[in-house]
Amino acid sequence: YCLSCIYDVNLYTQFEADACLVIKNTALFQEKLFKAFEEKMSNEWSGFYRKVKYIDPLQDFDKNRDVFTEKTFDYWYQQEVRFAWVPKQIQDNNLEHVFVDIGSMEDYCELIQLK
Hints:
The protein is an alpha+beta fold. About 20% of the residues lie in helices and about 30% in strands. It has 2 helices and 7 strands; from the N terminus they run βαβαβββββ. It has helices at about 10-15, 25-40; strands at about 1-5, 20-25, 45-50, 55, 70, 80-85, 110-115. Strands 1-6-3 form a 3-stranded antiparallel β-sheet, covered by helices on one side. It has a two-stranded antiparallel ribbon with strand order 2-7. The longest helix has 16 residues, at about 25-40. The mean pLDDT is about 90.
């Protein structure tokens, strides 16, 4: 699950979006999201929340890339943060989408919609 840690109106066009969710209490949001995932998927998964590291693919030759939290520097302006979950044991390569419900967020979030 990907988010930006900045508010920039240019991100609407970059992500072809007409709305954004401003999370005012990120700790509460994280807690609810991790709990909802764990309740749905059990503890056979390992989850994390990290800021994306932007790299120069022509200069950074480390073969141990972190595919979950690295992106080319072309996207540095997005200031992305990511939630990711990885199965502790991979059964096959066919991972399905997971939808979770964290309940109402109106106490700690604000929805901004373009008109």
